[in-house]
C-alpha cells in the first residue's frame, strides 16, 4: 500500500511504500473505520532512514509533522487523513491521523432552538455546520423530512452533525475526492435513511459475499435473551403548547461587584407581571492551585431561603468534575392541590395494524395502547394460556414529542424491539467489504444450519499485518430457509457429500515392540462426520503394497527400528482417505564383557546324619525280584529282528497294492475332469452364441453414458468399457471388457486378468490340481506337505 504525504497545502512532498527500497517504510499500521460516526482514523509508524532524495538540510521523514496530510487509495476510493499527533524518537515517527478537518473536529456550535419545522439541509445552513468546513451535501435520502429540534449545550460541529442525523433517523458518510494535483476536488457528506427492513442506509447489500464458518470466519456465538420482553405499550407525550403574550411588563435588573479577594458577587432582581419581586445572589470565587488545577466555587442564595453551592474542579487538558450541594433547603409552603398534568396519547388516531410476511396480524392499536398478539401467544405473561385470561405484559413509556403520529411511530419501534427475545450474535472474522455493507453468514455448526444477515459497522485493517484484520458486525437478522423439501433433501445430500473422510486406527497390542518379539493387529475405521463408511483398504510400506485386507498384522520381526505403515481407504476404485501409523522395535544393547570373579562365599551349615549303609533282607528280596522279571538279552534281540523283517514284508505288499489302486483312481479322476471341463466349455460357447443371436426386448442407446443397478451389498453397471460387477463398498469388483479381457480388482488394484487365452495372477492358490501340457501337479494324498507331478499322457 502506497502512502502519500502532503504538506499543509495538500501538495505531494513524500511517499511511504513498503514495496520499494528507495522510499520510507512503515509498520504497526491500523486503519479503523466506524459506521455510527462516519469517520475513520489511521495510525502508522515510519522508520527514520535516509533515502536518495534526501539532502543535507532536508530529510523525507521530516515532512511527517503535525501540519501534514496522508492519503492512500483502497478499493477504488481515495482516503485523506489529517495528521493530528506525532510521536518521535531517534529511530521512528508514530503518526495518528483522522479523516476530517479541524473545523469539524474542534469548532464549537452554540445552543440552538428551531422556531419552525426545518429540513436537514436547513439546519446545516442555520448553524453553519458545512460552510467553513468546505463540506457539501451529496446524497440526501431524507431531503423531504422536517423536524423541530432544540439543542441546549455547546458541542463540536462533528458532534452536532451526528446528533442532527440521529434526530432525523439517518446515517451519514463522509467522502473525500482529490484532483490530479492532490488538491480537494470534493468533500461531501452523504445522508441515508437509517437501516431498517426497507432501507439499506450506508453501504450496499452484498449478495455476492457469503461468509462461512471455517472459511471466512472463525466462530459465531448466538445469545437469546427474553429478560426485557413485553407485548403491550401505552405511549404518552407532551401536549402541544400555545405561547400567549403576557399583558403585564416583566423587569429584570442585576448588579455585579468584584470583591477584594478576587471573587465576584452578582445580585439579580426579577419583577413579575403581578409586581412581586424575587432576589437571587450569586457569589463566584476562582482558586488556582500550584499544579494548575482550577477550582470554581459558586454559591447561589434565592428568595425562597435556599442556598445552593456548586464546586467545579478542572485542569488544562484534562476532564472537569462538578459537585452540587444543597446547603439550605427552601422554606416549606402549604401544599396546594395541583391539577393532573395533561399528556398526549394516541387514542384519537384511527385504526392501525401491521401484518408480517405470512399475512399474520403482528401489531395493532386499540385505544391508547399498541399490541403484539403473536408475541403474547409465544410468551404469555403467566405460565400457560389456561392460567389466566390476561396474558399481556404491559409497559408505559413517555416520549419527547408533541405530535400523535410521531408518538405512535416511536411506540411501535419500541414495541417491535422488545416484543421478541433479543438475539445477539458475535462473529470473529474479517471480510474485505465496505462499512455499512450487508452480507450473509452461514454456519452449519447449528441445527438447523444458521443463516444470518448482518451489517459491517466497524473495521480494523492493517496493510502490513493482515492477520490482525478484524470486522465487527451488527444489525443481525436470522433468515429462514426458503428451500422446498426436495431441494432441502438435495442440499442435505450435497452437504453430507462435502464432509471429508477420516480414518481412525486401532491396535490390539500397541505400536512398540522389544527385541523383535510379538505382533499387533491394526484395524482401520472409515468415518464421514459421525457415520461409519464401508470401504476397501490398501496397506503400504515403503511404497510397496503389503495387503488389501480389512485389517493388517504387523510382526515385530518385520520392523527394523521404525516402520511407517500407510493405510488408504478405497471406494469405487478411488482413494478417499489415507492415514499413517508409525511402529517401533526397540532392542536390548550388546552383551557386556564377563566380569571378575567374586569373593569366596562362607561355608554352609553342617548337614544331618544319613541312614545306615548296610542292606537288610527286605531290600535284598526286592532286588532279586526285579532281576528275575527281565528277559534274556539274546532271546529278546532275536525276537525283535524277526518282527522287523515280517513288518517290512507286509509294508511292501501293502504299498504295492495301494499304488495300483491309487493309479487306477487317478486315471479315472483325470478322465472325469477332462470330460467335465470339455462339456462345460462347449456349453459356455453355445450359450454365448445363443445370447449373441437373440434380440433384446428393450434396447438402450447410452452412448458415452453408463447404466448401473444397485443391490443390497453389490452393484452391476454397464458402459462402453464393459460390464462391472462388484461390492458397493469398493472392496472388490470384476470388469468384463468387450476386448476379451476379464479383470478382477481388490481395493482398486487389478490382481488377476484373463486375456487372449492367458491367465495372469500375481498371487494365487490352487487347492487341488494344476495341469500344464501332459503333466499335472497336485497335492500328495498321503502327505499334505508334499506335491507330486504326474504324467497323464
From TrEMBL:
Region (Disordered): 297-340, 587-614
Top-level division of the source organism's lineage: Bacteria
InterPro entries: Phage_tail_spike_N, Tail_dom
Ranges of residues in domain Tail spike: 145-477
Residue ranges with Polar residues bias: 303-321
Pfam families: Prophage_tail (PF06605)
Composition-biased stretches (Basic and acidic residues): 597-614
The name this protein goes by in its record: Phage minor structural protein, N-terminal domain protein
Species in which this protein is naturally found: Streptococcus oralis ATCC 49296
Amino acid at each position: 500500500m502506497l502512502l502519500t504525504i502532503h504538506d499543509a497545502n495538500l501538495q505531494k512532498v513524500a511517499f511511504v511504500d513498503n514495496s520499494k527500497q528507495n522510499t520510507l517504510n512503515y509498520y504497526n499500521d491500523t486503519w479503523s473505520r466506524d459506521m455510527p460516526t462516519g469517520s475513520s482514523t489511521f495510525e502508522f509508524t515510519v522508520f527514520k532512514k535516509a533515502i536518495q532524495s534526501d539532502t543535507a538540510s532536508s530529510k523525507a521523514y521530516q515532512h511527517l509533522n503535525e501540519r501534514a496530510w496522508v492519503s492512500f487509495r483502497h478499493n477504488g476510493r481515495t482516503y485523506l487523513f489529517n495528521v493530528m499527533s506525532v510521536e518521535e524518537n531517534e529511530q521512528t515517527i508514530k503518526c495518528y491521523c483522522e479523516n476530517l478537518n479541524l473545523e469539524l473536529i474542534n469548532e464549537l456550535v452554540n445552543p440552538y432552538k428551531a422556531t419552525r419545522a426545518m429540513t436537514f439541509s436547513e439546519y446545516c445552513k442555520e448553524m453553519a455546520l458545512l460552510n467553513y468546513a468546505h463540506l457539501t451535501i451529496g446524497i440526501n435520502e431524507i431531503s423531504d423530512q422536517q423536524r423541530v429540534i432544540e439543542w441546549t449545550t455547546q458541542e463540536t460541529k462533528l458532534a452536532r452533525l451526528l446528533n442532527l442525523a440521529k434526530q432525523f433517523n439517518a446515517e451519514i458518510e463522509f467522502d473525500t475526492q482529490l484532483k490530479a494535483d492532490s488538491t480537494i476536488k470534493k468533500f461531501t457528506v452523504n445522508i441515508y435513511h437509517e437501516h431498517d427492513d426497507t432501507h439499506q442506509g450506508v453501504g450496499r447489500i452484498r449478495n455476492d459475499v457469503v461468509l462461512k464458518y471455517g472459511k471466512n470466519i472463525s466462530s459465531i456465538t448466538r445469545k437469546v435473551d427474553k429478560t426485557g420482553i413485553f407485548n403491550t405499550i401505552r405511549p404518552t407525550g407532551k401536549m402541544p403548547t400555545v405561547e400567549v403574550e403576557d399583558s403585564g411588563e416583566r423587569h429584570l435588573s442585576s448588579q455585579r461587584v468584584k470583591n477584594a479577594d478576587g471573587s465576584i458577587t452578582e445580585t439579580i432582581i426579577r419583577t413579575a407581571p403581578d409586581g412581586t419581586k424575587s432576589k437571587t445572589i450569586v457569589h463566584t470565587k476562582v482558586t488556582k492551585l500550584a499544579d494548575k488545577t482550577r477550582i470554581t466555587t459558586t454559591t447561589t442564595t434565592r428568595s425562597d431561603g435556599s442556598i445552593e453551592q456548586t464546586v467545579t474542579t478542572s485542569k488544562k487538558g484534562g476532564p472537569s468534575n462538578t459537585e452540587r450541594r444543597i446547603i439550605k433547603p427552601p422554606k416549606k409552603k402549604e401544599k396546594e392541590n395541583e391539577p393532573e398534568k395533561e399528556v398526549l396519547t394516541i387514542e384519537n388516531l384511527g385504526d392501525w395494524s401491521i401484518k408480517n410476511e405470512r399475512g399474520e396480524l403482528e401489531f395493532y392499536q386499540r385505544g391508547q395502547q399498541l399490541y403484539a398478539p403473536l408475541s403474547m401467544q409465544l410468551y404469555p405473561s403467566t405460565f400457560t394460556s389456561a392460567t389466566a385470561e390476561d396474558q399481556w405484559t404491559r409497559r408505559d413509556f413517555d416520549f419527547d414529542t408533541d405530535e400523535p403520529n410521531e408518538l405512535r411511530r416511536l411506540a411501535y419501534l419500541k414495541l417491535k424491539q422488545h416484543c421478541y427475545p433479543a438475539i445477539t450474535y458475535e462473529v470473529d472474522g474479517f471480510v474485505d467489504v465496505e462499512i455499512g455493507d450487508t452480507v450473509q453468514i452461514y454456519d452449519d455448526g447449528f441445527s438447523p444450519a444458521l443463516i444470518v444477515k448482518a451489517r459491517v459497522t466497524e473495521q480494523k485493517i492493517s496493510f502490513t499485518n493482515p492477520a490482525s484484520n478484524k470486522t465487527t458486525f451488527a444489525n443481525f437478522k436470522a433468515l429462514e430457509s426458503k428451500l422446498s423439501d426436495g431441494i432441502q433433501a438435495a442440499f442435505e445430500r450435497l452437504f453430507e457429500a462435502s464432509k471429508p473422510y477420516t480414518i481412525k486406527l486401532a491396535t490390539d497390542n500397541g505400536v512398540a515392540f522389544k527385541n523383535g518379539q510379538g505382533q499387533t493387529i491394526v484395524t482401520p475405521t472409515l468415518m464421514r462426520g459421525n457415520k461409519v463408511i464401508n470401504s476397501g483398504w490398501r496397506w503400504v510400506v515403503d511404497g510397496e503394497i503389503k495387503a488389501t485386507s480389512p485389517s493388517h498384522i504387523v510382526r515385530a520381526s518385520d520392523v527394523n527400528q521404525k516402520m511407517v505403515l500407510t493405510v488408504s481407504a478405497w471406494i469405487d476404485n478411488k482413494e478417499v482417505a489415507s492415514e499413517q501409523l508409525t511402529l517401533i522395535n526397540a532392542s536390548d544393547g550388546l552383551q557386556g564383557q564377563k566380569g571378575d570373579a567374586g569373593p569366596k562365599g562362607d561355608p554352609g551349615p553342617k548337614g544331618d546324619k544319613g541312614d545306615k549303609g548296610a542292606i537288610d533282607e527286605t531290600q535284598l528280596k526286592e532286588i532279586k525280584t526285579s532281576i528275575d522279571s527281565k528277559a534274556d538279552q539274546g532271546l529278546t534281540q532275536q525276537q525283535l529282528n524277526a518282527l522287523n523283517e515280517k513288518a517290512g514284508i507286509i509294508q511292501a505288499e501293502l504299498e504295492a497294492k495301494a499304488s495300483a489302486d491309487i493309479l487306477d483312481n487317478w486315471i479315472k479322476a483325470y478322465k472325469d475332469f477332462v470330460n467335465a471341463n470339455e462339456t462345460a466349455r462347449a456349453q459356455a460357447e453355445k450359450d454365448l452364441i445363443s445370447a449373441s443371436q437373440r434380440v433384446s426386448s428393450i434396447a438402450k442407446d447410452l452412448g458415452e453414458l453408463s447404466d448401473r443397478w444397485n443391490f443390497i451389498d453389490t452393484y452391476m453397471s454397464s458402459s462402453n468399457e464393459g460390464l462391472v460387477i462388484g461390492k458397493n463398498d469398493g472392496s472388490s469388483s470384476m470388469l468384463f471388457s468387450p476386448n476379451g479381457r476379464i479383470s478382477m480388482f481388490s481395493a482398486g488394484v487389478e490382481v488377476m486378468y484373463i486375456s487372449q487365452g492367458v491367465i495372469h495372477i500375481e498371487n494365487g492358490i490352487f487347492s487341488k490340481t494344476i495341469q500344464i501340457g501332459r503333466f499335472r501337479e497336485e497335492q500328495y494324498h498321503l502327505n499334505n506337505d508334499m506335491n507330486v507331478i504326474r504324467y497323464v499322457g
